[in-house]
Amino acid sequence: MGWYELAKVVHFMGLIALFGFFVIYARAGERLRAAGTLGEARTWLGMLEATRGMLPGGAGMFIVSGAAMAALRWRGAYPFMVVGFATLLVMWVLWALVGARHLRAMRDVIGDGEGPVSPAIARAILDPTPWGTVGALNGAALGVLFVMTTKVGWVAAIAIVVLVAALVGGVFTTLVRRRRDGVVGGRVGVAA
Description:
mainly alpha
């Protein structure tokens, strides 16, 4: 096996880590937002916390392996490479500034107590901005996957990543906002 093929294996490992993060985060996040007791909330928050290293680790594997593949085979600044690298760096920063902070904030507000999830705790868990941000990161990653596969030009590459990120982030934000408004308004059974 040559160096390029080895770099490609690491690239696929990054893909598995990154999309594994998004799948687990979306599913466990849905359960956390629906938790009725602090014990349930802690359980699902623990699942989210277990994914904490998957996004930065997957992004790191992508960046290192992508740079290696670019140096070994691809000469020049192709749109799929530049947009992919830039998107990964933005994802890394946004995760650190928004996603990881939200995990810590939820851990602090949930604490070690028992009983039902209070309205104040529900508001912290159901803050739509961080959930929408993670949704946008998911969409950006899906957009980059499409761009990497199709090798479109500059304008299309940038537009695809931005539009898919906005679409998925908007859907996440809307769903969480609806659940939050249902909890604050006293309605039960609003899915998010």
